[in-house]
Design a protein that fits this description.
By secondary structure, the chain is an alpha+beta fold. The protein is built from two helices and eight strands; from the N terminus they run H-H-E-E-E-E-E-E-E-E. It has one domain.
């Protein structure tokens, strides 16, 4: 029941910020290995890793410039650990699960389409930050693009789209 309430709260929080759900599934492998190494030092057992991704749409209208305004993204990685409480009956112990914030990733993202002509077609892109990874999905466009990431210090990224 507690898990259902936590998931419902996370879903409502995502809706209130205008987060879009996509088919993108983050890979928690690196976070799980970090959680295991930290858990062994703490004497706990990691049960699972949960990544709360941040997704936003970038809409280029027919008269929009090729470079959009920067937007802030935040992703959280949580680990669920098992505190093992020794019990005489039943023999062994009881697992008390709890969640702990493992890491927070923040990026400022700008989308640049340098080959875009004004007026041009309406184009929609969805950008997701999941853990340290940034992913872009073309939702609506007559063109096919390849994406190149360019770092902008201190924590910014420009996604440059070029036509294939």
């Amino acid at each position: 029941m507690r898990m259902i309430l936590v998931m419902a709260a996370l879903m409502c929080a995502g809706l209130s910020y205008g987060v879009e759900t996509t088919s993108f599934q983050p890979d928690p492998t690196a976070a799980l290995s970090q959680a295991k190494s930290e858990a062994s030092a703490r004497g706990t057992v990691p049960i699972g890793v949960f990544i709360k991704s941040d997704c936003q749409q970038f809409v280029f209208e027919t008269d929009s410039p090729a470079l959009c305004a920067p937007r802030d993204f935040r992703s959280e990685t949580w680990v669920e650990e098992c505190d093992d409480i020794p019990m005489p009956n039943p023999p062994g112990g009881v697992c008390i699960p709890r969640r702990r914030l493992l890491s927070v990733d923040q990026r400022t993202v700008t989308v640049d389409v340098p080959q875009r002509v004004v007026p041009g077609p309406k184009e929609i892109f969805t950008v997701c930050l999941a853990g340290p990874s940034i992913h872009l999905k073309v939702k609506q466009s007559p063109h096919q693009y390849k994406v190149q990431e360019k770092a902008e210090p201190p924590s910014g990224v420009v996604l440059v789209l070029t036509q294939k």
